Amino acid sequence: MYYQRLSDKEIMEKRTTPEFITELQPNEIFVFGSNLKGMHGGGAAYIAYRKFGAIMGQGVGLQGQSYGIPTMQGGVETIRPYVDEFILFAKEHPDLMFLVTRIGCGIAGFTDEEISPLFENAHDVENIVLPPNW
User: Taking a C-beta distance cutoff of 8 angstroms, is the pair 12, 33 a contact?
Assistant: First the structure.
């Protein structure tokens, strides 16, 4: 069910995150879709909580080796400010590598076509790795 982690070289060459992330290097951050209340009960949020230090009750921002972007509070446009905040945060932390999961495309019910345009400004940020076709 889970695939082995890509090497740092493969991630940078492909510039895409693997479908399943099961381990991280010390400088890597697991970016996941959350909810504002920080109830990390399913999907990537649960993985972030169980494996990568997400904090129950914190729905936004850096927590352990994870970073939450709320996706459950309304339409796509309610997600945009959190994505913009994330991109700025990543630019301010060039020593960290941010591996973005398909946020909003699981439990929140959005499609890749709806969410990926929110990350348009992330394509030129060296330390942000996006899902395939984003």
Answer: no
